[in-house]
Design brief:
The chain is of the alpha/beta class. It has two domains: 252 residues, Rossmann fold (3-Layer(aba) Sandwich); 90 residues, Rna Polymerase Sigma Factor, Chain: A. Helix content is 40%, strand content 16%. The protein is built from 13 helices and ten strands. Helix 4 packs across helix 10. The chain starts with a helix and ends with a helix.
Length: 351
């Protein structure tokens, strides 16, 4: 019965899974070159005759290319982004274990799997790959690009590189360059994976126990003191085996069942590498080039991407509007505050 319902939903939303083969070589910001690699992506809805209804959604670090799966409150029938009205595209970021090129793939030059030697993509590298897919699909202009966290980094990188590509952009809980604070969290997570004795092994299961610890560290940065205070109180005044401890272990186990330590390790490096100002222009100059109508959204309790980072974006993107959402969820508020986001999005996009 569950399969039947899911199948019907796919028909209703015209959901399709695709794999695009990037052709040729892509020189990464690191100087390395990667060639002829897959990009997994999902589309929902139908492209209209004028190709004016494109909604390009960018997922966060451990999500997949199906936004109807991880952003159910925002994408779907009758939701803010409705496949009956919009042609929704989401590409799985390179490095992830959900279909795009990853550490589990083979290096075309050596014939061996990359594993720990995968040449990680910066967010700018990622969108340069996406741009070839865009051209393949014949899309000249995108109605709106929207993304939170690492997805927002990709959106900002693309809008800065192609200033007139998007009519509207909505970066949420993101930044123009990753902070020392954010890099410290990611470094600690990588250290946890490196401390796993299996990390040195060249196989797909390397570092999986370390991944559980890494996720526990990450979760503290995604949430807030108030989040735990409201949801993890020990009402029985437990001496040990507290709710917080149980919750951290649960979240580590949960991620390990669906993700991969090699991908996680690489993607934290991708996040750390984000900086609009790398090259001939400063980050402020890149932002000032953006021509899109812009709505920047911050989360009041966000510890990982604090509000001052969204204020910086709004200050330097011409005509940008800034909205700060009050939420006790911390950084994860961008995934959980559906009603607030829907109201703000619909007013901004007039949909």
């Amino acid at each position: 019965m569950g399969f039947f319902i899911a199948f019907q939903d796919d028909i209703t939303m015209n959901k399709q899974q695709h794999t695009y083969q990037f052709k040729g070589g892509l020189q990464l910001e690191s100087g390395k070159v990667i060639r002829d690699f897959p990009l997994a992506y999902t589309t929902l809805g139908t492209l209209n005759a004028t190709k004016s209804n494109v909604v390009w959604i960018f997922h966060a670090m451990t999500a997949n290319s199906d936004p109807a799966d991880w952003w159910q409150g925002m994408v779907g029938e009758g939701k803010c982004f409705d496949p009956a009205k919009h042609f929704i595209i989401c590409v799985n970021m390179p490095g992830s274990c959900y279909g795009s090129v990853s550490p589990m793939d083979k290096n075309s030059e050596t014939g061996e799997r990359y594993y720990q030697d995968f040449p990680f993509f910066t967010p700018l590298d990622m969108v340069k790959a996406f741009d070839q897919l865009r051209l393949h699909l014949g899309i000249e202009n995108i109605f709106v690009g929207v993304g939170g966290s690492m997805g927002g980094q990709q959106l900002i990188a693309w809008a800065g590189w192609k200033p007139s590509l998007f009519q509207h952009i909505i970066p949420i809980a993101t930044n123009a360059f990753h902070s020392p604070w954010g890099k410290a969290f990611n470094a600690s997570q990588r250290m946890s994976i490196e401390a796993d004795p299996s990390w040195k092994e060249k196989n797909q299961a390397a570092g999986m126990e370390g991944l559980k610890v890494a996720r526990s560290i990450a979760l503290i940065s995604y949430r807030h003191y108030e989040t735990y205070d409201k949801t993890q109180q020990d009402k029985d005044k437990a001496i040990e085996n507290t709710r917080s401890e149980s919750y951290q272990k649960y979240q580590g186990e949960k991620l390990a069942k669906r993700f991969n330590a090699l991908s996680y390790y690489i993607l934290t490096k991708s996040m750390d590498s984000h900086h609009l100002g790398r090259g001939v222009m400063e980050a402020e100059e890149i932002l000032e080039r953006i021509e899109s109508k812009t709505l920047v959204i911050g989360i009041s309790s966000d510890l990982l991407y604090p509000v001052n980072e969204q204020q910086f974006l709004a200050k330097h993107i011409p005509g940008a509007r800034l909205e700060i959402i009050e939420s006790f969820y911390g950084h994860d508020g961008f995934l959980l505050e559906d009603e607030k986001l829907t109201t703000i999005f619909k007013a901004f996009l007039n949909i």
